[in-house]
Amino acid sequence: MNWALIMAGGQGTRFWPASRLRRPKQLLSVISSKSLIQETVSRIKSFIPPKRIVILTQREQLAGIRKALPEIPSKNFIIEPVGRNTAPALGLGALRVSRRDSDAVILALPADQIIQNKKRYLRAIKAGIETARSGNVHVTFGIPPRSPETGFGYIERGTVTEKSRGISVYQVKRFVEKPDLKKAREFLKSGRFYWNSGMFVWRAAWLLASFKKHQPILFRKLLQSEKSLSKIYPTLPSISIDYALMESASNVRMIPGDFGWSDVGSWSAFEHIWPKDKLRNVSRGRLIAIDSSGNIVDGNSKLVALLGVKDLVVVSAGDAVLVAQKDKVQDVRKIIDILKKQKLTQYL
After folding, report:
1. What is the pLDDT of residue 265?
2. What is the 3-class SS of the chain, one letter each residue?
3. Which residue, 80, 105, 218, 252, shows the most beta carbons closer than 10 Å to its own?
4. Domains delineated in the chain
């Protein structure tokens, strides 16, 4: 059967001050009345019912996420004692799912992505599931790049291996880490490179076999953690699924995903999502902009007035306000580091 593992343990530090420890990015409503994690579950539950949707999260976020998703059975929440990146989380989730369904095909999704074309999304996801079910392959989804983005990893496609639901499935030639601007422009011009979406599909048994082959120490500790999760899990390496498996595996497939994807990794993502005025200011609240252009504004129900400024990010959320140059929003996490150092935990 089809299962979903939804990764919901991150805080979304680059999305501060809206995203906080107990109300992380995935619990925010930024495109509709639903939170991002509610949108994620809603998109897939027509073919993966709530009883087969598993949520990976941390204890500080559990109450908020359970409240947002009352349809998910309590046994389907897996609490990570500490964040250890996506490889340990997905390995743990795959072990739990395989105990319940040895023939499971697992769709792994981040909880906090935006998808603007649900029809195309579901077609691509179902094609990925069919591809994964047919053999021992790792399936990922590549997003056709809109710009030379330096904040994403990239996937270089190889030859077409097959078609699924009318969609070409490509052999992955290589994964590339976040490039500099010159390299990103080369990638965009070539037409062969896609943004790494962080979405994957595997047969559970194949994923676990791949962990055993490529990450034997991690796999052994994951098995041990079933008896003592709180003791063993914190000793696991913090490593992404890309580093742990995808970059070293030879049988990786990619399905292009032209479905209006955004990982909402930073405030700059909303340039392509929120309404835009004639001077390229984007806002989801009341805005007065005089001689101002290219700004991103979230007043959180407050009126924001701009006068003679350009290319700023202005965010008001609760007891904090962020004002930043638009090209610096990837560095918002530095503010988090200072808040921790100064023990200003009320702002985290």
Report:
1. 78
2. CEEEEEECCCCCHHHCCCCCCCCCHHHCCCCCCCCHHHHHHHHHCCCCCHHHEEEEEEHHHHHHHHHHCCCCCHHHEEEECCCCCHHHHHHHHHHHHHHHCCCCEEEEEECCCEECCHHHHHHHHHHHHHHHHCCCCEEEEEECCCCCCCCCCEEEEEEEEEEECCEEEEEEEEEECCCCHHHHHHHHHHCCEEEEEEEEEEEHHHHHHHHHHHCHHHHHHHHHHCCCHHHHHHHCCCCCHHHHHHCCCCCEEEEECCCCEECCCCHHHHHHCCCECCCCCEECCCEEEECCECCEEECCCCCEEEECCECEEEEEECCEEEEEEHHHHHHCHHHHHHHHHCCCHHHC
3. 105
4. 2-265 (3.90.550.10), 268-331 (no CATH)
